[in-house]
Amino acid sequence: MASVTSSSSFSTRLLLHSPIALLSSSSRRSRSRRRNKPNFLRMVTRSCLDDSSALLRAAQYTVDTYVKSGMVVGLGSGHASGMAIQHLGRQLRIGNLKDIVGIPMSVASASEAAKAGIPLDTYQDSSQIDFAFDDADVIEEGTLVAIIGRRKLQSEESIVQEKSILNAANKLVFVIEENQYKGGLEGSIPVLVQSLNWMAAAEEIDDMFLGDAEVWRRPSIGQAGPLGGDFPLVTGEGHNVLDVIFTSPIASLDAQW
Q1: Which residue from 25, 162, 178, 232 has the fewest beta carbons nearer than 10 Å?
Q2: Quick one: CA dihedral 218, 220, 225, 226, positive or negative?
């Protein structure tokens, strides 16, 4: 671990090569049989500035440290990723970086990259991605398992594509705030299921946790609820999102998922 510290209570963490916990219903069993311990580097930066300024510094540090001319770069979604995309565009305009190709993970990141002047390509299964950065909802201490997908999604947005790009990257950094790096996690874990048999998947997940979690289908508009309302969210690949909402802290994401 390398660290830069000050007396401030604010910090931002950069996490490299972390496994990702946003699961499809078909991947839950196979994950326990194929546990890979990632070779990761964890960087911690602390700032005496406010949270937004610390996050900006971390986003800029990510680009300046890991992005090199000629790279294919996965462009993440979220507030920190947006700042990193803007900084990457500035570095291209002033000539500090050249021949960068961006692979956006969402419509929002594609739009931000286009405004920043970053040349773009679309993700394919055979795409070779040198480096990627992204936001995460939370990262578990010790295991460095990252949860993505809690944020509000637009209909037709592809969470599968975001995760595929992250998994395809040779190097990966999550840019998060200090309060997103914790143990004893609370809240929800998003699970992707096929729309046609979502109810069976929801019942199976509910049985797995025996009252320790509620399973709600995420709506595209309106109020959330167990059934997802009249307009459930459907992703670009035709999935529903089930939010598995834990009623007590999760002892270990790595053990559970």
Answers
A1: 178
A2: negative
Which residues does 65 contact at the CB level (< 8 Å), separation at least 6? none
**C-alpha angle 206/159/235, rounded to 5°?**
80
- Backbone φ and ψ of 211, nearest 5°: 90, -5
Strand, helix or coil for residue 69? coil
Q: Distance between CA atoms of 80 and 63, rounded to whole angstroms? A: 11
Q: Does the annotation mark 157 as catalytic?
A: yes
Calpha distance 54→192 (Å, rounded): 33
Q: What percent of the chain has pLDDT over 70?
A: 75
Q: How many CA atoms within 13 Å lie on the side-chain side of 129?
A: 30
State the pLDDT at residue 60. 94
The dihedral through the CA atoms of 55, 11, 171, 155 has a sign that is negative
pTM assigned to the model: 0.77
**CA–CA distance, 145 with 139 (Å, rounded to integer):** 6
CA dist., res. 46 & res. 36, Å (int)? 30
Q: What is the DSSP letter of 222?
A: S
Max CA pair span of the chain: 57
Question: Residue 89: which of 79, 78, 75 has the closest Cα?
Answer: 75
Cα distances from 37 to residues 19, 34, 110, in angstroms, run 9, 10, 32
Residue 71's CB: how many other CB atoms inside 10 A?
18
Query: Is pLDDT above 90 for 13?
Result: no
Average per-residue pLDDT for the chain: 77
Q: Which of 112, 157, 162, 177 does the annotation list as catalytic?
A: 157
**What's CA 202's distance to the chain center, in Å?**
23
Average pLDDT over residues 121-142: 89
Task: Enter the tokens of residue 19.
Answer: 């496994």
